Amino acid sequence: MPRRPPAPPATEHDVVVCCRQPSGLELAGTVVDDLAGRGFRVFFEPLEDDEALHRSLRVVEETPDLIVVVTPGALDAGRDPGDPLRRLLAHGLATERNIVPLLAAPEGELRAQELPPGLEPLARLLPVSYLEGVGHNAAMSTLAHRLSSETGLDDRRVERRFKRWLLGAFAVLLVGFALQTVPLLIKAWTRPRPKPPLAPFALYWAGFGQRVEAGRSISFDPAPGTRVSGGDQLRFVFSPSADGFAYVVARDARGGIAVLFPPEGLAGASRVKAGQVYEAPAGGEWFAVDGRAGLDAVYVVAGYDPYQNLEELVERPEMELTPADRRDLLNSTLSALVDGRHAPSDRARTRTSQTIDRTLPPAPGPAASHALADGGRAERPLKRETGLVSALAELRVRLDAR
User: Fold this and answer.
1) What's the pLDDT score for residue 373?
2) What is the residue-wise DSSP string for 254-280?
3) Is the dihedral of CA 365, 367, 372, 378 positive or negative?
4) pLDDT value at position 345?
5) 67: closest CA among 127, 16, 131?
6) What is the pTM of this model?
7) Closest listed residue to residue 305, CA positions, set 64, 94, 12, 43
8) CA angle 40–304–325, rounded 5-degree value
9) Cross-strand bridge partners of residue 118
10) Which of 32, 106, 142, 261 is most buried by its number of CB atoms within 10 A?
11) E strands along 29-119, which residues?
């Protein structure tokens, strides 16, 4: 069998497309053509041998989005640990890529119990259904909108228009000189520039508590191990060291999950700005400890990238998910945090391929105070939790039945 010619040098891509062969090749080609027409830089190579698989694995590490075309039985056949498609998807999950399943059968769905070991998290992702002919445009528009790299398309279009205008001006004004210099300038301007490294993400936070004792309201500091009881009220403030995304989630003693920040049902509200102080719950409200369910822990999660599982907790009403599903979404996020304590972090980088330089200091944080029910104010210095791509503040309390 003739050897495959060496691959061209690696270039920067927005999205990787993969599929099961041969059933998914035609739809994968349709996806590649459509996304390329929208301005996305698409990488697609059939997984025919180990060399193709290794090239695809390397590109996935440098690319924010991964689309998997799911034809009937595509993932059932991937139960072999050495299956190329299964290995590529497992690598995408391990590196926290934004994975978007495209279902070739509109009535189909991904069920965790039917997926190969290690690919169960795919069942928690929101898929896009493709209906050939009738639903093509809608499916492709939805697919493009689900890609995190979509936000960079307008910037690249402006850059391309500016470069064309500038090259035209040089060609008119410097006719003879431009014939020799313009090719060199084009090469210099279009060469991909590495993005600067980022400092480790830091989260500054504090908790405030108040309860009624002997008929009057008193404040307390909700520190780890603090005893709380039904009726106690809690509020949390936090500030990120950099622009990013943040979530505050409470778990009660029965395993129930409540989202304190951002407000539930409000899509896109998890984005936060560096140095600004945010409250959870928002709007001056307090979180009251339920006398029957109690409280086990409160988690403040923040980082450079959004977390799809927590976004699902925010955007989907509580009645659409079972309590077990809500717990799984939280637990899977916590276990995969690239904060230096949970998921492996030897090559910590964001979805936009910016590396984390542990020698860079995070930006300093502010101070915070809060008004209490009795009209007084409680001052708290903000504690700092330093991570890598993300940071986690965890407050575990003990329930005191009173």
Assistant:
1) 55
2) TS-EEEEES-TT-TTTTEE-TT--EEE
3) positive
4) 63
5) 16
6) 0.54
7) 64
8) 90
9) none
10) 261
11) 42-44, 65-70, 98-103
Residue 252 half-sphere exposure, CB side, CA atoms within 13 Å? 17
Spatial distance between the Cα atoms of 385 and 82, rounded to a whole number of angstroms: 39
Domain residue ranges of the chain, discontinuous segments joined by +: 15-146, 154-190, 202-399
φ/ψ of 326, rounded to 5, equals -65, -40
Residue spans of the chain under pLDDT 50: 1-10, 160
374-382 long-range contacts, CB within 8 A, separation 24+: 374/216, 374/217, 376/219, 378/208, 378/219, 380/206, 380/207, 380/208, 380/221, 380/237, 381/206, 382/204, 382/205, 382/206, 382/237, 382/238, 382/239
| Residue range 20-70, pLDDT digits in tens | 989 899 999 999 999 999 889 999 999 999 999 999 999 999 999 999 999
The count of residues in the chain is: 402
Taking the C-alpha atoms of residue 343 and residue 126, their distance in angstroms, rounded to an integer, is 23
| Matching residue, tokens 């193709």 | 52
Distances (CA, A) of 215 to 119, 212, 227, 290, 401: 54, 6, 19, 19, 18
- Give the HSE-up count for residue 240: Cα atoms under 13 Å, Cβ half-sphere: 26
pLDDT at residue 171 in the model: 55
Instruction: Give me the pLDDT at residue 400, please.
Output: 78
What per-residue confidence (pLDDT) applies to 2? Answer: 38
Question: Tokens representing 397?
Answer: 């309390």
Q: What residues does 150 pair with on adjacent strands?
A: none
* Three-class SS state of 87: helix
Dihedral sign computed on CA atoms, order 343, 347, 352, 358 = positive
CA of residue 21 relative to chain centroid, distance: 29
72 touches 130 (CB < 8 A): no
**Helix 84-94 with 50-62: angle, nearest 10 deg:** 20
Could you report the per-residue pLDDT of 373-385, keeping only the tens digit for each?
555 666 767 899 9
